TrEMBL record:
Keyword Transmembrane helix recorded: no
InterPro entries tied to this protein: Mur-like_cat_sf (IPR036565), Mur_ligase_N (IPR000713), MurCDEF_pg_biosynth (IPR050061)
Coiled coil region boundaries: none
Residue span(s) of domain Mur ligase N-terminal catalytic: 16-114
Any one GO molecular function term: ATP binding
Superkingdom per UniProt: Bacteria
Taxonomic path: Bacteria, Pseudomonadati, Campylobacterota, Epsilonproteobacteria, Campylobacterales
Keyword vocabulary terms for this entry: Ligase
Key word Oxidoreductase present: no
Pfam family, one: Mur_ligase
This protein's name: Mur ligase middle domain protein
Organism: Helicobacter pylori SouthAfrica50
Length: 245
């Protein structure tokens, strides 16, 4: 089910990466995290946002709005899901034969060597990701909401361990390289991405869980209660201690 992206980022240290749509919650998270890993970051967006202001304060060069002149000698271009093929920066990157990756495809290279605690589900994944990152203050974190613990959607860290809020809406959670897969629920949504095929939708969750070394699931979920492989199973109104590290 998982196809390895054709373009792989082999060395993030000093890699020159340009993000198109850098102000979005998902793309800005990757940009902040990769800057902490030593990558040379630039970006563009259509408007100023809190994430853009934060990155600019870190010294990241960001163009508002998109500008093809921003595409020069980068090693790779990463774009958000809403960026279309006719984007001027995408077109310029093609002219210069610079590799172009969607956020989804970029995840494979970014996370493949990390010890990822990957949280996915229809509801509660931002809260769980934020709580887990608070419990593990030395871990890096990329979550889909602003954490009060570290006043950002990202905790920049060079630590090999990472709390990551994964996304099932475009099946990018399958690229998150989960060491520990944490799934509180699997309520069907974003079915248009799965061609409105429930079997395909639930197979994606099964694939995600199967490829983790450790798993945490919620027993009350109609799909998860029938999951057959070893997992830490949480139940309603019960308290238990367990080790996921």
């Amino acid at each position: 089910m998982l196809e390895t992206p054709k373009v792989l980022l082999k060395n993030l240290q000093d890699c020159k990466i340009h993000f198109i749509g850098i102000g979005g919650i998902g793309i800005s998270g990757l940009a902040k995290y990769l800057k902490a890993q030593g990558a040379k970051i630039s970006g563009s967006d259509i408007a100023i946002s809190p994430s853009v202001k934060y990155l600019k304060a870190l010294g990241v060069e960001i163009n508002i709005p998109h500008d093809p002149k921003a595409i020069q000698n980068q090693d790779v271009i990463i774009h958000s899901a809403i960026i279309k093929e006719d984007n001027t920066e995408i077109q310029r990157a093609k002219e210069l034969e610079i590799p172009i990756l969607s956020r989804k495809d970029a995840l494979y290279s970014i996370l493949k060597d990390k010890r990822v605690f990957s949280v996915c589900g229809a509801h509660g994944k931002s809260s769980i990701s934020a709580m887990l990152s608070a419990i593990c203050p030395i871990f890096g974190a990329i979550i889909g909401a602003h954490s009060k613990e570290f006043d950002s959607n990202v905790r920049e860290s060079a630590n090999v361990s990472l709390v990551f809020e994964a996304d099932e809406s475009d099946s990018s959670f399958l690229f998150s390289n989960p060491y520990c897969a944490i799934v509180p629920n699997t309520e069907p949504e974003h079915l248009e991405h799965y061609n409105h095929d429930l079997e395909r939708f639930f197979f994606a969750y099964e694939y995600f869980l199967d490829h983790a070394q450790k798993r945490v699931i919620y027993k009350e979920d109609p799909f998860l209660k029938n999951y057959s492989k070893d997992a830490i199973v949480l139940e309603k109104k019960t308290f238990k201690t367990f080790n996921i590290f």
